[in-house]
């Protein structure tokens, strides 16, 4: 552990000293979290340290800088050290703390499912936009934490949102988030995609597994701690997406929409599958980093 300069009579470091130590410790991740698609930086180390110290102290980021000379209490210092040492093993901060912010809410997270990511918030915005064009229930396939479906339900309480996941633990987690956030217009149950789904929906939304099983992306960074079953799909990452597109028409209302998150190179192939299954208005849009990330289309009844 990096030595921390402290006054002789001090039992614990100040906030500023703790931030310096935590950042130095987290920088070890630059050697294990860097690759062609993932790069752990000095700024990432600072960010992780701030988040963990805020949680240990139960304060805001602003407090850290306003009171940087304030000595940390012994229990908070011990908790912070423990979390930093776990972070150094590569465990994602969200799993360490058991929560993740997403679309103006905070969701409980666990290793049984993926950590909600900022780019997926675009999927929520798009679902709300399309629902205004085709009123009716919304279906969230592979809901995981429930972040997508619950965010839609919270943003528009008049929408009935149904969510499913194949993993029983994920269903329980989504239910916990529903109860915690007190969302009434949301229900979740176990299903292998559409297997136990009934009824028709105005909007179907999904962030399915889409990473190729042999992708080097899976060997670098925090992602090695996330469940592979929620990340990977055969057929160049397209197997689950093809299943969803081909089966969705049976569950869509007239003029209904299907919205899918996917890998940055998969847009053209997904557009082709949409077209082969009588979808129209097929469109691919980019994420915050400018990468093609979401393709959506409207089902054309024949």
From TrEMBL:
Ranges for domain Release factor glutamine methyltransferase N-terminal: 43-98
Alphabetical keyword list: Methyltransferase, S-adenosyl-L-methionine, Transferase
Lineage top rank: taxon: Bacteria
Pfam families cross-referenced by the UniProt entry: MTS (PF05175), PrmC_N (PF17827)
Enzyme class, UniProt record, top EC level: transferase
Domain annotation Methyltransferase small: ranges: 121-215
PROSITE patterns: N6_MTASE (PS00092)
Chain sites annotated for binding S-adenosyl-L-methionine: 142-146, 165, 193, 207
EC number: 2.1.1.297
HAMAP family: RF_methyltr_PrmC
Name used for this protein in its record: Release factor glutamine methyltransferase
Organism for this UniProt entry: Opacimonas viscosa
Gene name of the encoded protein: prmC
